[in-house]
Amino acid sequence: MRLRGVSATTLDDVVIASNVSKSQLYWHFEDKHALVGAVIEFVGDRTIAAERARLGSVKTFAGLRRWRDTLVETNGPQGGRYGCPLGSLANEVADQDSIARQKLHDLFSAWQGLFEDLLRRFQKAGVIPCQADVSQLAIGLLAAVQGGYLLAQASRDVAPLASAIDMTLAHLRLLGSEAHL
């Protein structure tokens, strides 16, 4: 599904790729809808766990820059080809499956929460102003990441991902410098 997309992947493709029989597949998944739900949970849990590990200890702009560099470097060898695993799934299923859309919404909310936690640490450390709206800043950071992933996927180049995140980090730095005036 990651390589071909949800709609282009058949259950026969899954049987072949997983080297199981159709009866084994149907033992675990009633239909493709159930399989897609499981894929969303698996990919979502993995994505959020990785982001939690990378973002959980960030307390400085240098740490945030390292997070950005890792994200860009991880996607560099593929030239941004596959985009964000969650964003790609959302693009494919959001209009067709309300349960999947809600799961993806919850995963994006969890990711936003990780950014909010990071920004609260920045506030506590005096890196950004205490009155800064961390919820709005976190939405902006998540949107920059997702937009950057999408543009990188379309261009087969990670430069748009890097640029989108850089613009958001520049905004955060500007907020931080204003806090010290």
UniProtKB/TrEMBL annotation:
InterPro entries: Homeodomain-like_sf (IPR009057), HTH_TetR (IPR001647), Tet_transcr_reg_TetR-rel_C_sf (IPR036271), YxaF_TetR_C (IPR054156). Residues 10-29 bind DNA. Pfam families: TetR_C_13_2, TetR_N. Keywords: DNA-binding, Transcription, Transcription regulation. SUPFAM superfamilies: Homeodomain-like, Tetracyclin repressor-like, C-terminal domain. Gene3D superfamilies: Tetracycline Repressor, domain 2. This is TetR family transcriptional regulator. It comes from Kribbella turkmenica. The lineage of its organism: Bacteria, Bacillati, Actinomycetota, Actinomycetes, Propionibacteriales.
